Predict the structure.
Amino acid sequence: MSSSAGSMVDVSQGVLADADSVNHNKRLYRKETLLREVQRFHLEEILPGKAFGELTHPCYTSKAFRTIITSTASHQVMAVWWRDNQLHGLVRTTCTSSRLI
């Protein structure tokens, strides 16, 4: 990922996911599935400004998995786009204690 320097909030862009290939967690996400889910994510989370994330992902069975906890958010996804089978994104860090590692 590349990053802008010298600002209170850093903005970076880079690859968020690779479609149709096994990732570091040994999972394979088909492009047709990612296309559908990224479109939904864009409409429901990115456009309304709710696409926050954490450095450590909560377990999907946790109540926190689908809940935005701003005190633990480390970044916000601002935009996404496709280049072939790679999903790229523009992400900015948030001003919370969680971004300080």
Residues 2-7 have pLDDT under 50 and may be disordered. Residues 2-99 form one domain. The first strand starts at residue 2 and ends at 3. The two ends are 17 Å apart (CA to CA).
